[in-house]
Fold this protein.
Amino acid sequence: MSRLRQSLPPDRVLTSRAATTSFESDGLTAYREKPGVIVLVESTSEVVDVVKLCHEFGVPFVARGSGTSLSGGSLPIANGVVISLNRLNKIIDYSAEQRTITVEPGFINLEVSKHVAGDRLYYSPDPSSGPVCTIGGNVAFNSGGAHCLKYGMTANHVLGIKAVLPDGEVVEFGGESLEHVGPDLCGMFVGSEGLFGVALEITLRVLPQPERFHTVLAAYDTLAGAGDAVAMIVASGLLPGAMEIMDRLAIEASEAAVHAGYPTTAAAALLVELEGPSEELDAEIPLLEQVIRDSGAYEVRVAANKEERSRIWVGRKCAFSAIGRLSPDYLVQDGVVPRTELGNALSAIEALSEQYGLRVANVFHAGDGNLHPLILFDGRIPGEFEQAEHLAGEILMMCLRLGGSITGEHGVGVEKIAYLPEMYTENEMNLMRLIRQAVDPAEIANRGKMLQASALGKGG
Amino acid sequence: MVSLQFRSPHWRARVQHNIPAEELGPLGPLMADAVSKCVHCGFCLQACPTYQVMGEEMDSPRGRIYLLKEVLEGSLPLDEATPYIDRCLGCLSCEPACPSGVPYRNLITPFRILAEPIRARTRFDRFLRWVILQTLPYPNRFRLSAILGGLGKRFASAMPRRMKEMTALLPTKLPAARPLPELTPAVGTRRARVALLAGCAQQVLAPDINHAAIRVLSNSGVEVVVPKNQVCCGAIAAHTGAGELACKLARQNLVAFPQDVDCIITTAAGCGSGMHEYPVWLKNDSKEGEAKKLAVLVKDVSAFLLELGPLNLVPLERPTRIAYHDACHLANGQGITSQPRALLQQIGNLEVVEVKGGQNCCGSAGTYNIEQPEAAHLLGQQKAEAILATGAVAVASGNIGCIVQLQHHLETLGSGVRVRHTVEWLADSIRA
Ligand SMILES: Cc1cc2nc3c(=O)[nH]c(=O)nc-3n(C[C@H](O)[C@H](O)[C@H](O)COP(=O)(O)OP(=O)(O)OC[C@H]3O[C@@H](n4cnc5c(N)ncnc54)[C@H](O)[C@@H]3O)c2cc1C
Ligand code: SF4
Ligand code: SF4
C-alpha cells in the first residue's frame, strides 16, 4: 500500500468506503466484492508499475474498463487491487490509408467508429454496450455484436496488442497486418478474460463503411417461427450483416424506452439487415423479401431512411437495460446453439420458463445462434434468485446438449466457472490450467475468473 | 460521523434491494423505486459530465445511485457519500441515456432534502448556503446583495475561491429594475390566457426576458397575467436540500396562481422543471392534489409558443448565425429540445447551429458554480470554447443560469458573443 502511495498521487489511490463500495460490482449484480484499493491510472507506465508491485507482493489485481461485464469479469477480488483504466482513453495512432487505429485500453468502443467516420470508415464489432464499454474490455472478452455475423467478433479485428504480463514484463503481440508468422499470440490474448495481464495499447482494423443498408423488421406470431426464418435465410445463401430476434417481452421493454416502432403485438420480431454495394443489394433484396414471406411473417417493415434505421438499432441495443422497466432484477444468459436448432432451443426455453414460473425475455444474435435469455425475477422474494440461477443453468445445459456453447460473447467470468468443465474434457481443462500456470504461477491476474483459483493461487 | 442508519448492515454476496422505504417518510417509496429500476448496466456513464471529467465510478450516475442505495439501506455512512452527491450537477443527462427508465430526479432531490438536516458541513459551507438561500429566492434581497457583490469584485483577490466564483458571475452593473404589468391583454383576438412565473434571480439579472415573453405572447393573441403574490418557484431550495423552504414556497405559489388559465408559463428552464416537481416535494401533503393540478398546467414558453401556431415574425436585416445551447433542465428535465430550435428557425435570415458536445452541461446548474467552483469552471470554459468554434455571433438559450454562466465564460475568453434568451430573439422580430 505505502509503495502504491509513493508511486501515485493520493487522489488516485482510493481506499475510502465510498470508493470500494461503488466499485464492488459490474454489469452482473449477482455478485459483489469489495477490493482493497482502486488505482486510477493515467499512463501505461503506471499500469506497469502497479502490476510489478502486485507481482512483488503477490497481491491479485483486476483490470477494469467500464464495468459492464455481464459475467462478473470485472468483479474485484477481496482485498485485491482494481486497476481502473477509464482515464487511459487516448488515441495513439491512426492511419486512414492503412485502415488501422491504435488506442489505449480505456478508449470507448463506439468512439472508434466516430473517430474514423470522417474517412468513411468504421469499427465493425458493435456490442450493444458500445456507447460505454472499452476496447480493453472487448479484447478481454472477445466481444461481439449484432454486426459480427458477417465480419467476425473482436478477435477478427485486433491486429496487435501491447500488454503487461502478470509478472510486469511488457510484451507486444501481432503487428499492423492480419498475417503473421508463428503462433497467434494475439489471438490467445483476445478472449483471455484478463488472465494474461493488462492490454496497454491495442491496434484495430477499421473497415470501409458499407455503401448502403437495407433494414427489415418482420413480425411473427410464434418465437420458434422467427427462429426458423433465420435458418431459412442462411439456407437461401444470403449473408446479412446482422440478424437479430426479440420476443414480446423484449419488444415491450424496448418500445417503452425508445419508441422505435417494433410490432408490439408480435410474439417475436426478426431484424435483418443487408449491407454492401448498391448493385449487390438490388439483387439481394427481392430474394430476402421472398424468404421472409415464405417463413410466415405476418407483417414486414423496411426502414425508410437513416433515422428510422438508427432508431430500430437503438431499440435493439437498449433492450437488455430496458428490461429493468419490467422487473426489479434479471439475469442475462449467454449461450450458443447451432443455427438449425434455434427453433428447438427457443421452444425449450419457453417450456422451462413455464415450469419455473419465471418470465424469460429473449433478445439475441440469431444469425450466430447466440441466445440471450433474460430471466426476470424479484430478488426481494426469498428463493427467487436461486430459482432464476437454476433456470439459467438448465438453459446452458440445453445449449450444450444441442451441440452449442455456454458463452457466445459475455465470457465465463465468475458466473460460469462451474460450467466450463461441462464443455471441455479433463485434458483440455488441464491444458488451460497449464498455460495459465506458465504465464502467471501465482495467479495474481484476475484470480478466480474463468478458471477456478487453484490451491496455490488461493494461498498466494 | 453521521449516518442514516435504519437497519443493521449485513453482508450480502449479491446486490439486493433492501431500502426500508416506509421508514424514510413520504419520499421513501419514490427513492426506492428509482433505485430498484437501476440494473447497473452503465449506459449512463458517458452521458454524465462529472464522469467525463473525473473518470471514476463514484462520480457517475450508476455510482451515485449505488452509493445512495447503500446509504439508504444503512450500509454506508452518509458522510462517505456526500462528496460525490455534492458533485452531481443535477443536470439529469443520465435520465434520457437510461434505457431502464430510472427517474434519477426522484432520487437525488429527495435524498438531498433528507440528508441536509443531518449531514456534516463546515462552518464556511453553512454560511455560504445561508447566504444563497437567504438571497436568491427573494428578488429584493438578491438585488441588494448582487449590487454589493458587484462592488465586492474589486476586493476579489482577498476572497476565498468559492466566494470569488460567486461574485465573478455577477455583472458589475445591474440592469434597472423593470416591474412586470399585472395584466397584459391580447392584441387582436384572444387565443389563450396564461399566467407567467416571474422567477427570482432572472428578474434581477435580466428583467428584459420576461418583458420579451409578454411582448411575444400578447402580440400572438395571448392574454398574460402575472400573479401578484407569487414567489420564487423553490427549485434552488429543493435542489440544495432545503426541503422545508421549497415546500413553503410551493405552497405559497399554489395559492398565488390562478387555475383558470390555459397554462402557467415559465421562462427559466430551472423554474419550469422545479414547478413540475411540486407533487414530489409535497408528496403525502394535504396540498398534493393541488400540486398535481398545477404541475400539469406548467409549460415552458417555447413549447407553448410552438403549439400556438406560426408566429408573425419580421426577418432579420442580414443573415445572422447563432448557436443554440440546450439548458439541461429544458432538454433533460422537460424533454424540450426541438421546440426552441423550430421557433428560432421561423425568424428569416437567422441560421441556428449546433454546439459540439451540445448535450454537456455548461456547469451553471443552479448553485453548482458556487458550491463546486472547479468543475463548474471547467465545464463553462469547455462550453464557451465549443460555442466559439461554431463561428456563431450570438447564442440563444432558455435558462437564466446558463445565460449568465455562458456570458461570463465567453467574456473571460475575450469574446464579444452575446447570450440571450430564445424569447428575446423572438421579441425582436415579432410584428407588433
Ligand atoms: C446492457 C449490456 C449490453 C451488452 N451487450 C453486449 C453485446 O452485445 N456483446 C458483447 O459481447 N457483450 C455485451 N455486453 C457485455 C460487456 O459490455 C462486454 O463484455 C464489454 O466488452 C465489457 O467492457 P468493459 O469496458 O465494461 O469491461 P469490464 O467489464 O470493465 O471488464 C471486462 C473484463 O475485461 C477485463 N479487462 C478490462 N480491461 C482490460 C485490459 N485493458 N486488459 C486486460 N483485461 C481487461 C476485466 O478484468 C474483466 O475481466 C453487454 C453488457 C451490458 C451491460
Ligand atoms: S443507465 Fe440506467 S439502469 Fe443503467 S446504470 Fe445507468 S441509471 Fe442504472
Ligand atoms: S444529474 Fe448530471 S451530474 Fe448528476 S449523475 Fe446525472 S448526469 Fe451526472
About this structure: The longest helix of chain B spans residues 373-389.
